[in-house]
Structure formats: C-alpha cells, structure tokens
Design a protein that fits this description.
The complex is a heterodimer of chains A (258) and B (526). Chain A is mainly alpha-helical. Chain A is built from eleven helices and no strands. In chain B, the strands form three sheets. In chain B, strands 3, 4, 9, 10, 11, 13, 15 and 16 form an eight-stranded antiparallel β-sheet that branches. Chain B has a seven-stranded antiparallel β-sheet with strand order 8-7-6-5-12-2-14, with no helix packed on it. In chain B, strands 1-17 form a two-stranded antiparallel ribbon. The chains are: A mainly alpha (258), B alpha+beta (526). At the A-B interface, α4, α8 and α9 of A face α4, α8 and α9 of B.
Amino acid sequence: MRESLHAEWTKLRTLASTFWLLLAAVALIVAVSAAAAAAVRCPSGGCADDPAKISLTGIDLGQAVVAVLAVMAVSGEYGTGMIRLTLTATPRRVTVLAAKAAALTGPVLAAGTVAVLGSLLAGGLILPGHGIGPSHGYPAISPSDGVVLRAGFGSVLYLELVALLSLGAATALREAAVAIGAVLGLLYVLPIIAVFAGNATLSRQLDQIAPMTAGLAIQATTGLNSLPISPWAGLDVLAAWAAGALVLGGLLLRSRDA
Amino acid sequence: MKRTRRARIHDRANGLRHHLAAWDRYGFARLMRAEFTKFRTVRAWMIALCAAAMVFVLLSFLSAFESHAPSSAIPTGPDGEAVSDTYMFVHQTLAGDGTLTASVNSLSGAHSSPSGTSGIAISQSSNGGPRSQPRAGLAPWAKAGIIVEPDTRQGTAYAAVMVTGSHGVQMQYDYTHDRPGLAGLAGSSVPRWLRLTRAGDVITGYDSADGSHWDKIGTACLTSLPRNVQIGLFVTSPVYFAARAGSGTPSVATANFDHISTRDEFPRRSWTGDPVAGFYPTGPSASTWQQRSAGAFTITGSGDIAPLVGDIISPAWSGASIVNGTIAALLFVIVLAALFVTSEYRRKLIRTTFTAASPRRSRVLAAKAIVAGSLAFAAGATATAIAEVITRHILAANGNYLFPQSAPALARVIIGTGLFLGLAAALVVALGTMLRRSAVTVAAGIILLVLPGILGSESGNWLMRFTPTAAFAIQATLPRSSLVTSAYTPPNGYFPISPWAGLAVLAAYTAVALGAALWLLRHRDA
C-alpha cells in the first residue's frame, strides 16, 4: 500500500495540470464567491438571505474543476495506456484505487481550505456593504461561530467527496469525457430538473437525493427548518453517492481487463 | 408555358450544380462528408445521439407524468384569451342608460404568509415562521370600484373604474385594456370619487379627488351590450407575491364606499350581493358585504379581474417538461461534441486531417461545427416535436390547464430547441478545439451551458440573460400581463429575455468561441 501510495502521489505531483487545476479551483471559488456576494442586493432589509451560503457560492463552480482533476487521475492513465503498467506494478487493483483516492485527498483538502477561507473572508468584507451585515440584523461571518465553521468545514469536505465520487465514476466509465459528463450531469442537472419538476413533493424528494443540493445543505446557516434535508444528513447523502461510485469503480476495476 | 417552366427549373438546377461545383473546388463538400463519416462510423456516438433524443422524450414524459393539478374550468374573455374573473359584486340592474357614482375612502388588505418556498433547489431559505397566518398588506393590484357588465357570469365583457393597491385609479375594460387616472392610494383624508356612465354601448369612466371637479379617464365601447345590464360596486384582491417569492398566496381586500348615488334607469333601486366565484384561489372570509347606510357599503372580496398568467392556478408550466428534456439531451450533446473534436487530438488523427484532408484549418473547424451542429439540431428538433405532443396530452389528462399554443409558437419551440442544441454542439466543438483535453472541454461546456441555469433559474436574474443559458427563453410560450403581479420566473415559464434574443445570446457565444478557436488553430501546432 505504501509503495502504491508513493507511486500515485508521484504521478499526481509531477503532472503540471494538477497544480494548475488546483490553482484554478481556488481562484474560481474565491472569484465566484466574491462576485455572488457583490451581486446580492437587499436595500430594504428583510431578505431571506444566508450570508455564509452566499459567501460560499463559488463551491458550485469549483467542484467542476475538482471533478476534472479526479477524473483525469484515472482516465488520463486509460487514455495513454499507463494503466496497464500501473496494474502490472501493483496487481492488487483495489489497492491502486485506494492509493489514488488517498493521494488526491491531501491536495483537494488543502486547496479547499484555502478557497473556503478566501471566500468567507471576501463575503465578510463585501456583504455588509450590500445590506447584509451585522448592522442589518444578519449574523456576522466569523469562523468562531459554530454554524459558519460547520458551513466552511463542510464545504471543504464537500469538495473532497466530489473528488472521490469523480474518482469512482472515472474508474467505472474510463473515458474522461463520459466520466466528467456523468459526474457533472449528476451534480448539475438533477437540481435543475428539481426546479422545473412542477410537482413540489417530487422536487423536494429530488433535492434530498441529488448529491449537489443535499451536499450543499451543509452551507446553510439560517432557515434550517425549511431545508429539504438537514446539513449533516445532506453531506451523508453525498458521501453515500461517493462510496457507491468507489465501490462500483472498484468492482469493475477488479473484474474487467484493463 | 409548360416548356418555359421546365426550362426555368433546368436553369435553376444548372445554377445549383455550378454553385456546388464552386464549393467543391475548395473541397468543402468533401470535407463535410468526411467529417460526417467520422461521426457516423463510431457506433457508440450514433447510439449516444439517439440516446440523447430518447432521454429528451423520456424525461419530458416523466416530468409531465408527475405533474398533477385539480381540473378547473378556465373562463375565456371577449377576445378568447384565458382570464381570471372572481370578485365580490354588489349590484343592481340598469335598464338603459345611467350613471353610478361612489367614493372610496379606504382600501385595506391581508394575505396569508407564504408557506415556504416552492420546493426550489438551492433556495435561500425563508425563515420558518408560523404558516398561513393572515398578514396585513395590500396586493398591488387589489381593486375596488364600479363595474358594469351584461350579467354575472365569468368571462363577460365589462368596463370598470377602480382604486387599486398601488397603481392609483384605473379604468379597465375587457381584461386587457387599462387607462390610468389619479395616482395615489385612497384613504379617509384622500377619498377617491369614481363615476361610470353608460350611454348605449359606450361606457365612460371619471374620477375626482373631491366629488365636485371630475376628470374623464377614458371610454370603452362594449359592442352589443344588452339593454339590461348589471352595474354595481366590486372588490377583489389577487394572489399576493412577496419580494423574490417563487409562489404567491391568496389575499383579501376590504373597501369602504360612501356617497353612492344613481341617476336615470335604475328600476329596482335595491342592492344584491353576489360573489362571482371561479377557479381563482381566494383568501379566507372573502366575499362579505354590509350596507352601513343608504349610500355606504363595506365590501370584502378576493380574486382578480384580469388576464390569466402562468403560475396563478398551478405551479406546473407545460413547457417545464420540455426544459427538463432539453437539459438532459444537452448533456449528451456536450459529451458527444467534445469527443468529436478531442478524440482526433488524442489519436493524432487531427494531423492527418490537417495534412491530407485539408490544410486549410478554418475549413476543418467549420465542417466539424456544421456536422456536429446539424446532427444535434436534428436530434433536438425531432425529440422536441415528439415530446410536445406527448407532454401536452399527459398534462391535460392530469388536469393541468394548458394555455392555448399557436402554431407559430409551437414551431418556434421545436425549431428553436433544435437550434439551441445545434449551437451548443458547435460551441463545444470550438471549446474542444481550444482546450483539446476531453475532460476539460466537457466541464467547460457544462459550466457554460448548464451551471448558470442552477444559479439563475429560480429568480430569472441576469445569469439567464447574459450566459448561454439565455437560450432556454426560446421555449417560453406563456402570456405575460402588466396588469397582473406574478412571479415571472423561469420555473413558472417566464424568462428574463425574449425568445429569439435569448437564442441570439447563445449564438454570440458560439460565434466568439469559434473565432477564438480559429485564431488558435492558425497559430498553434496540432
């Protein structure tokens, strides 16, 4: 396992794209979060806005970059044929998958933490100027606040789970375009279908099982009663999706020829 | 005659042949054929293209299947449009010509508080206060005034002068016409005097701030009005929408009328109160009336007299199922178009294409974009046509009211959705040419074409006006009215941009991306 992890880490570390994708993820998350905070207007007060959730809007976009990174870690090897070499060197295939997951975890958690801190900082600076701040009766965005800490920490975990989901999907589907299409389809298309479902019960149920809407419930700091699913239960739903994808990927990896 | 026509056809055919030959001199037709063959001969791609169309139809079907509504009879107005016609009416018969005058010295309202957001995905959650408790607040289009109409059935022609919640005094007739009178809300210190005069088919509305100096607001000609008509006082209050709310709640309004006087042909001289009721959602304890003295009434009413718009009766919008189908098909189209380009880069086939087939790279890009675009167009238009027929049948069977859809609007949705998917395919071809990596291309395509829909679809904000998702507006078919306050948001069938302008936004993105791809193609090694 240790050699395998070392090998995966070396492969990931020495790819130029890894660094650039992580940098892009951090930059996009902070930029989009700041833009979302700057776009909110609540001049007369009383808007049902959640300061922490707005400040973390960038995660919606940043998860796509993290998904690309995770998919490339597997599909890239299939594209070049490298996977055969990897599997010859480490015949225990599940170990390979576990090593890939472990190698991805550190960089994603690190980039996620930087991005979340940057986003919350930007939101805390920008939002009060747009009518959503302590002077308007909203809670201040401070990491010492329990719910804000949960929203921020949860968002980092969210990114990590998206990476694991993508890793599993890519192992099962192999082709990079198909894998990323499946992952982003699962993440982005289900919420839109829920919006246009035209049936309140169905759209609520969809929001409860869709990995993105359920998982992002972790970002909610106000109005917890009207959420379709509670924050930690929502993150569990995403974790279940990720675990399912990894198990499926692992089974297929074991049973199929490379 | 016959010969000349044949000669003309012959000439035209010759012209076309020359034209084609001119194209072919540059090898473009051959290039298109080559690109089409490349696509056609990958079996998985052809299967995926068919799957895109099938998923489109299937998802539309499922969305429609899940959408139920209590069946209700919707009245139609004099011009054949669907209307709301629900209010409290205190009236008597006017046999011939005459005038009714009244002053409104208060108009107040209440509405039930919203019962959560309408199940919308990543909604900024509302604070979960106590539900359905009446809150004071007047709907902007709450109405109290004088109305004349042939009888008390729904959907009849009418003319009315009224005080409104926040649009001042208005004269309205036949649901879609209005003329503004005095501004400002009626109150005890600022009464609003209203007068309606009938002379044959011509109804004239007046208003006054003091009851002595009168201004004419406008006239309405109600053709073939019978001799005996119903004239009287009415109060109504439409569904109330809080700021940025996705759905509304019923409301009621109460008005005090004073100084009521009649002139000329009023044979009975006694008042009757009748709620004119219909499908329209009304508030609690609506439809009451009380005669305080000979010339003074207090009336409470709920409903609306206005054109019907999308989300008043049910949250279901018939086009929403088509939107769902489109999004699913879009995903397939993005992946296919990305593979169509990037797989050539991965297998280095692109070098063969550039050296052997056509060294003029711009033409290769154009051929690829056209082939991918037309295949996506064909799949999209076909799927939309099938889905339209199926979903409208199912929605109607489930009791949903379907607004009448004109043939041009239907054609626009079918062709437009095809163009949407076609332009999306061409856009992704351009992205693939620039980015080369399939995973990055697909992610970029989805971020451009799908993600803004998540963040913008709830409120219909600028994201659905300035990003490629603006193209969803091509599917809008519902009527909109300036006389009705509503949540004109994408889930309810209203987009923040007009249909063709929305498609043009996507076309602009595609054009810019193709231009950038072309520039990169020329300046970069393959």
